[in-house]
Design brief:
Blueprint: H1 4-11, H2 15-22, H3 32-45, E1 66-71, H4 81-96, E2 100-106, H5 113-121, E3 126-129, H6 135-144, E4 147-151, E5 159-162, H7 165-178, E6 184-188, H8 200-211, E7 221-223, H9 228-239, E8 247-250, H10 253-265, E9 275-280, E10 293-296, H11 299-314, E11 323-325, E12 329-331
Parallel strand pairs: 1-2, 1-3, 3-4, 4-5, 5-11, 6-7, 6-8, 8-9, 9-10
Antiparallel strand pairs: 10-12
């Protein structure tokens, strides 16, 4: 029988798009032309669905085949390009293996008593965590959902997949240093977290700066809380300083693009007067002005690997918890 990937290849779309079309998922707007291509490809390949797809609410699924997912986003959960790209890879691979997504929630939605009660009363078979939960909530979920995989979380008792944030911070800084920059700012969200936690991307940045013998000035460490508007305000304030930096190391492409917008609004030329580098290589980064130099994170692959690890656990894998880091790759464009 044909696979969802064969349908996707024939239609010229992603596997996630195929699943949304075939399951009438209205979460995303999909052009009629694209829908027709998918239906025609499904007919040509003889594809038959193995499970119902995510519909935005709890979905019916065969016993033992329902998977929950908790996203790490602070705003509209369907519009964060980084986590939705990871989710697309995750969803497509789960569907291939006959699973359905029972729910897709954010950390903040999990704080709602009714939401949490509904999940705990009818728990899914497996859980994908893209967010570091507080210990009490995590324990409650783990007690009822034993098969769990984390994406960039820090739980030592489950499989984790992601990328090395410390290495990423070092590589971003080193690229700017090799370009001759000595006055470098760091732009990130929740750099200094609760209970003394410090962003590993920031720690990698600090390590690279230390090795190069370059100073880290506190007024150049900008914590924007992953808020684009706050990011723009911080960049404008940074450039109003008497001795501003010559480069910005941003912990995500979205924040880097917000920085580019702020610099453009105050007449600072990139990269002539200010270099900017990002992290993730979301699709929009190639269309920023100027196009953003970044390090690509294999977002869809991370989701696919997470699905594979969860499937292995549900099939009885008893190996100790594994931690898998996928490689990142430099994408040179025009902002550095």
């Amino acid at each position: 029988m044909a696979s969802i990937r064969e349908v996707a290849a024939l239609a010229g779309v992603s596997a996630a798009t195929v699943s949304r079309v075939l399951n009438n998922d209205t979460t995303y707007k999909i052009r009629e032309e694209t829908k027709n291509k998918v239906w025609n490809a499904a007919a040509q390949t003889g594809y038959k669905q193995k499970a119902s797809a995510h519909s935005g609410r709890a979905a019916a699924a065969p016993a033992g085949k329902r998977i929950g997912c908790i996203l790490s986003v602070t705003k509209d959960k369907y519009r964060d390009p980084y986590f939705i790209s990871i989710y697309a890879g995750l969803e497509a691979r789960l569907l291939e293996k006959g699973y359905s997504v029972a729910f897709l929630k954010t950390y903040f939605e999990m704080q709602e008593p009714e939401t949490l009660r509904a999940i705990l009363e009818a728990p899914p078979t497996g859980l994908i965590l893209m967010e570091q939960l507080d210990p009490a909530l995590y324990s409650s979920l783990r007690a009822r959902i034993p098969a769990c995989v984390g994406i960039d979380t820090r739980n030592p008792d489950i499989d984790i997949v992601g990328y090395d944030h410390f290495e990423a911070g070092m590589r971003l800084a080193n690229h700017l240093i090799r370009k001759g920059h000595q006055k470098i700012a760091f732009l990130g969200g929740t750099i200094f977290g609760p209970r003394g936690a410090v962003s590993r991307r920031y720690l990698g940045f600090v390590a690279a700066m230390h090795v190069a013998g370059l100073p880290i000035r506190s007024e150049w460490v900008l914590d924007c809380k992953w808020d684009e508007i706050l990011c723009i305000d911080l960049i404008k304030a940074l450039m109003a300083q008497p001795d501003p930096p010559t480069a910005i190391c941003a912990a995500s492409d979205l924040m880097a693009m917000a920085a580019l917008s702020a610099l453009y609004s105050i007449g600072v030329r990139v990269p002539e007067q200010m270099a900017v580098i990002g992290l993730s290589n979301i699709q929009l980064s190639q269309f920023s002005s100027p196009p953003l130099t970044t390090y690509a994170v294999p977002m869809e692959a991370i989701g696919q690997v997470a699905a594979e690890l969860l499937d292995e656990r549900l099939r009885g894998c008893t190996l100790p918890p594994r931690k898998l880091y996928l490689p990142i790759a430099k994408v040179v464009r025009a902002s550095v």
